[in-house]
Specification:
The chain has about 260 residues and is of the alpha/beta class. It has 2 domains: about 5-200, 2-enoyl-CoA Hydratase, Chain A, domain 1 (Alpha-Beta Complex), CATH 3.90.226.10; about 205-250, Lyase 2-enoyl-coa Hydratase, Chain  A, domain 2. The protein has 11 helices and 10 strands. The protein has helices at about 30-45, 70, 75-95, 110-120, 145-155, 155-165, 170-175, 190-200, 205-215, 220-235, 240-250, and strands at about 5-10, 15-20, 50-55, 60-65, 100-105, 105-110, 120-125, 130, 165-170, 180-185. It has a 6-stranded mixed β-sheet, with helices on both faces. A 4-stranded mixed β-sheet has the order 4-6-8-9. Helix 1 (about 30-45) links the parallel strand 2 (about 15-20) and strand 3 (about 50-55). Bound molecules: octanoyl-coenzyme A. Octanoyl-coenzyme A binds near residues 24 and 107.
Length: about 260
């Protein structure tokens, strides 16, 4: 389908979604969210795609949050519907069985930070700025920020960011474990694509099982998490990739993973 508010590309098993409303600093309006949802469905249905990189058009912003001109028209019920829609899409993003990297190239505010932290990890350009400024609008984060941010950076750090609404730099995001890596702006996409490429040649089943074990394990106690890992470990052996990976090691050659589950 033709997209107007995002750019969706696939090359060498790596999908890229670029938020593309640069005049509004890539703010998330309803139309953009619908297109994002459709692109995520297309990715989920494509067996060949192994990684997704999300970034923003222009050199200023990743996503400057929900579109405030739309928020300004909401009542309590429409706010609820909008938040439910955002949660559904972000859940879809988080559930993708592939690696998802946020390449944060500028402002990642409100819904922008919330999308970034639903990715598997974040690479940031030196000019990136993160924050949950909703409190300055008299509202609170509505796309998962009150839940995912404390799980990622700790309760007290998340409270300080959400209560003050302040922006933090890429360097500070790196220090508190929000971003994995900070690079000069012109190297950001290259670095993200390089890591996506490294992951794209791994076994599809082992990548999926590792991701699911980590994500599901974060929401349960350690013993239950270890049980989840045991099952995921067993499932990884259902793929020919396990035979190929271990045999290649013994034969001192590079493994060629084909990603099929049965064989
Ligand atoms: N929504 C709509 N338009 C925006 C947004 C936004 N979030 N952010 C920027 N823009 C627009 C500006 O209005 C401006 O448009 P125009 O040129 O037509 O005047 C254009 O983008 C450029 O922005 P600025 O001129 O303001 O650029 P500056 O460099 O001066 O400032 C900032 C950049 C600091 C990013 C500033 O634009 C800003 O503070 N933006 C708002 C950031 C914000 O508060 N984001 C959080 C929104 S709330 C949210 O995300 C909650 C998500 C879940 C909600 C669920 C509830 C139901």
């Amino acid at each position: 389908m033709a997209y107007e508010n995002i750019i969706y590309e696939v090359k060498d098993r790596i999908a890229t979604i670029t938020f593309n409303r640069p005049k509004a600093l890539n703010a998330l309006n309803g139309a953009l969210l619908d297109e994002l949802s459709q692109a995520l469905d297309a990715i989920a249905a494509d067996e060949d795609i192994r990684a997704l990189v999300l970034t923003g058009a222009g050199d200023k912003s990743f996503v400057a949050g929900a579109d405030i001109t739309e928020l300004a028209t909401f009542n309590s019920l429409s706010a609820k519907h909008f938040a439910q829609k955002g949660h559904r899409i972000i859940h879809k993003l988080q559930q993708l069985p592939i690696a998802v990297i946020a390449a944060v190239n500028g402002f990642a505010l409100g819904g922008g930070t919330e999308i970034a932290i639903a990715c598997d990890f974040i690479y940031a350009s030196e000019s990136a700025k993160f924050g949950q400024p909703e409190i300055n609008l008299g509202v609170i984060p509505g796309f998962g920020g009150t839940q995912r941010l404390p799980r990622l950076i700790g309760t007290n750090m998340a409270k300080e960011l959400i209560f003050t609404g302040k922006m933090i730099s890429a360097a500070e995001a790196l220090r508190i474990g929000l971003a994995n890596k900070v690079v000069p702006p012109e190297q950001l996409l290259e670095e993200a694509m390089k890591t996506a490429g490294e992951i794209a040649v791994k076994g599809k089943v082992s990548l999926r099982e590792a991701k699911q074990a980590i994500n599901r394990g974060m929401d349960v106690d350690l013993a239950t998490g270890c049980d989840i890992e045991i099952d995921a470990f067993a499932i990884s052996f259902a793929s020919p990739d396990a035979k190929e990976g271990t045999t290649a090691f013994v034969e001192k050659r590079k493994a060629e993973f084909d990603g099929t589950l049965t064989g």
